[in-house]
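Supplementary Methods, section 5.1.

A reviewer requested that the exact input to the structure prediction be made available. We therefore reproduce it here, unchanged from the version used in the analyses.
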Amino acid sequence: MSEFRPSRAILELAPDFFDPVAPADFPQTILRFRNDRAAAQIGLDSLSDTDWLRHFGRFEALPGSLETPLALRYHGHQFRTYNPDLGDGRGFLFAQCFDNQDRLMDLGTKGSGSTPWSRAGDGRLTLKGAVREILATEMLEAL
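The structure derived from this sequence is encoded token-by-token as follows.
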């Protein structure tokens, strides 16, 4: 078991790279899945189910981590046109930490509420969409 090693490296960037956001409130959150293998790699394998819900369901900051979640800004091509004003529309950066190989890791969310980049949406994600995200993440990790 490794120790959780938080980082706040994102805050070294200019504020033009992110927007502080308030997560949506999910009063009836149920823990349906936890990736214990990934948790062990970043020192969170000792968290109880209650702690998981507190940190990853109610978005209470992890010790030493970001106090406020951040929606990241970016730019790129959208609908065949360059757009300098893109950003996370339904997710945010919740924490940064180092894994057991000293790599900087971003802990992000999906469907956790609206951000300045949500356009007309509410920033939410269905359970079906969340399962697809988990499966895609696991498949990419296996590559």
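Residues 135 and 141 are 10 Å apart (CA to CA). These observations are discussed further in the main text.
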